Each structure stands twice: as C-alpha cells, then as structure tokens.
Amino acid sequence: MHYLAPLDEARSLHSIAAAVPSSGPYASDSLAGDLLVPYLKRMLAENRRRVLVDPDGVAAFRHLLKAISAAGNQEALALAYSFADVFR
Q1: pLDDT per residue over 43-62, tens digit each?
Q2: What does DSSP assign to residue 83?
Q3: Which residues 6+ apart lie within 8 Å of 23 measured at CB?
Q4: What's the rounded Cα separation, in Å, for the pair 27 and 48?
Q5: Which superkingdom heads the taxonomic lineage of this protein's source (predicted)?
Q6: What is the pTM of this model?
C-alpha cells in the first residue's frame, strides 16, 4: 500500500494504519519496520501538515510509529523520540 500512497496520501495513511496491528508478529517483523520507517519519514518530509496537524493523520501516524517502536525497531524509536512533544 505504501507504494500507492502518493496517489492518495490521506487514504493510504489511514489504510496502512488500519492494516498494521498494535502488536504481534507483523509489528515486530524487521521487514515491516524497514518498509514503514522510510514511509513515515517521507510523510514527515512531504506531508508534514497531515501527520502533525490533522487529527486523523496524527492518530494514524502515531499508531504506526507506536506499533513498530514498541516492537523495538531502533529507527522508529529514534523517530519517536525526535517527535516526542507531538505524541504526548
């Protein structure tokens, strides 16, 4: 889904967030983190307002970051700490 995201960023963000469970094998899979972290970084770079201001976008972004951070993905943890004030 993240490859199709540029076609409709809002819909893709919500769809990806809905597809990724809060915990479990997918969230802890290193391949999932390798796909999701660059996607989240791209969202921050290209769609900052959607993931930092829009309430639905913030919730979806937060869910994804929390899921892969909780699984111990180091890049996700670093990203979460750099935006800690947004997620309080």
Answers
A1: 888 888 888 889 999 999 99
A2: T
A3: 67, 70, 71
A4: 23
A5: Bacteria
A6: 0.83
